[in-house]
Write a structure and sequence with these properties.
Elements lengths: L6 E5 L4 H12 L3 E6 L5 H12 L3 E5 L5 H15 L4 E4 L14 H29 L2 E6 L12 H21 L4 E8 L12 H9 L9 H12 L10 E4 L3 H5 L1
Parallel strand pairs: 1-2, 1-4, 2-3, 4-5, 5-6, 6-7
Helix pairs in contact: 1-2, 1-7, 3-4, 4-5
Bound molecules: nicotinamide-adenine-dinucleotide (NAD).
């Protein structure tokens, strides 16, 4: 019951790492809002998980590229739950394309979801949490926030931006009782990897000294720690959950 009495918003909560994080928070006694796209599986998951864990699990349709939808997500969540103690800023998309071929549209879409979306959600969270006098924001970055990868210019730019934006937000928010951290997953077995062919995937697995892909639950456990009071002196960090990927490179 490490999250008892806490209300948590998870963006991109209908799938993969987000969904695993929703489950872990419910298991630990939180009330959770799954914020994901209209047409995602979020509504079904919220109903199923709320029953399964006998806890409050709501779905709110929210596209993180739309400021009005993000602000409404927080206003509605506060109206229904009373407060928001933790946010997992997790919604994101992948994207592989040679840099000389990528269109403005493709490039800007990745930046708008993976970087600007993280800022929109963090800003809305800060406004609520400053009013409450505290809270924890966790941004989903990546090993690709600190290392490059061929054909992933927009993705790596966005994740690198998330890592450094996290530091800035952490410094700014600390005096007001709000902690801001990032998580850096290695390659995790979620639908995001479905676009990769098997040869590429096997090569990527070999880059993790632990010798396998990560599981969404393993990232969810890191979120749970950073969201909880156990991390009360942790802010501005980029916690790697990467099976040793970065250790092998440094
Ligand atoms: P996923 O595809 O399983 O889940 C992503 C979720 O985000 C989906 O439910 C999707 O509907 C939602 N989403 C997409 N665009 C959105 C938008 N505009 N507004 C709101 N929700 C939106 O992927 P995942 O692997 O669980 O990814 C979660 C996060 O983890 C992403 O930020 C991703 O970049 C990051 N990450 C993943 C890996 C990996 O290997 N899977 C590695 C490092 C970082």
């Amino acid at each position: 019951m490490r999250m008892k009495g806490k209300n948590v918003i998870v963006t991109g909560g209908a799938s993969g790492i987000g969904l695993a994080s929703v489950k872990r928070c419910l298991q630990e006694g939180a009330s959770v809002v799954i914020a994901d796209l209209e047409g995602s599986n979020g509504q079904v998951q919220a109903a199923r998980l709320g029953d399964l864990y006998d806890s409050r699990c709501l779905f709110k349709a929210c596209d993180v590229t739309d400021t009005a939808q993000v602000d409404r997500l927080f206003a509605d969540s506060v109206a229904e739950l009373g407060s928001v103690e933790a946010v997992f800023n997790n919604a994101g998309i992948g994207g592989i394309c040679p840099s000389d071929e990528v269109t403005d549209e493709e490039y800007l879409r990745i930046i708008d979801i993976n970087l600007n979306g993280v800022f929109r959600v963090a800003r809305a969270a800060l406004r609520v949490m400053y009013g409450q006098g505290g809270g924890s924001i966790v941004n989903c970055a990546s090993i690709l926030g600190i290392f490059g990868q061929s054909q992933a210019a927009a993705y790596t730019a966005a994740k690198g931006g998330v890592v450094n934006m996290t530091r800035t937000l952490a410094i700014e928010a600390a005096p007001k009782g709000v902690r801001v951290n990032a998580i850096g997953p290695g390659y995790i077995d979620t639908p995001l990897l479905e676009a990769l062919d098997d040869d590429l995937l096997q090569g990527l697995i070999r880059l993790h000294p632990i010798g396998r892909l990560g599981r969404p639950e393993e990232v969810a456990n890191a979120f749970l720690f950073l969201a909880s009071d156990e991390a009360s002196f942790v802010t501005g960090t980029h916690l790697m959950v990467d099976g040793g990927f970065t250790a092998g490179k440094s």
